[in-house]
């Protein structure tokens, strides 16, 4: 499953790059995310996701696969295990920074590459019916 989102940033592309590639600085801005440890380029943490009445919490790691400043492209991989032992998930997140006069944009793509969790399937079903 792929989720994409594009947003503008009120800063120079260089500054947006600096902020959005600093996991320790950006993690507190993500609802439900908590960074618990940093080991080099590997980040350990937890994320809690709620869709309607269904909540899941994963504990896992994320790390940079690609950090191409010239192309303004970042790729991270993340993998985690459900805190209640009901499954796991892994994802690849890609950020691409670009400039179209007069605004600066960030395109974010989240590709869920592996889901083995009943709560996730319930959440996806609920989100589909809730629209």
Descriptive notes:
The protein is α+β, with helices and mostly antiparallel strands and 131 residues long. The chain has one domain (2-130): Alpha-D-Glucose-1,6-Bisphosphate, Chain A, domain 4 (2-Layer Sandwich). It has helices at residues 13-20, 23-26, 118-130; strands at residues 2-9, 33-39, 42-51, 54-68, 73-82, 87-100, 103-117. The chain has a seven-stranded antiparallel β-sheet. The mean pLDDT is 81.
CATH class: Alpha Beta
Distance between termini? Answer: 17 Å
Gyration radius, in Å: 16 Å
**Overall pLDDT confidence:** 81
What topology, given as strand order, has the largest sheet?
1-7-6-5-4-3-2
Q: How many domain regions?
A: 1
Helix fraction, binned, reads 10-25%
CATH-derived topology: Alpha-D-Glucose-1,6-Bisphosphate, Chain A, domain 4
Query: Got a strand count?
Result: 7
Counting helices, strands and paired strands, the structural category is: alpha+beta
Catalogue the unreliable spans. none
**SSE order, one letter for each helix or strand:** EHHEEEEEEH
Biggest sheet details: 7 strands, antiparallel
- For this structure, what is the CATH homologous superfamily? START domain
Number of helical segments with 4 or more residues: 3
Q: Give the overall form.
A: globular
Estimate what percentage of residues fall within beta strands: over 45%
Give the CATH architecture.
Answer: 2-Layer Sandwich
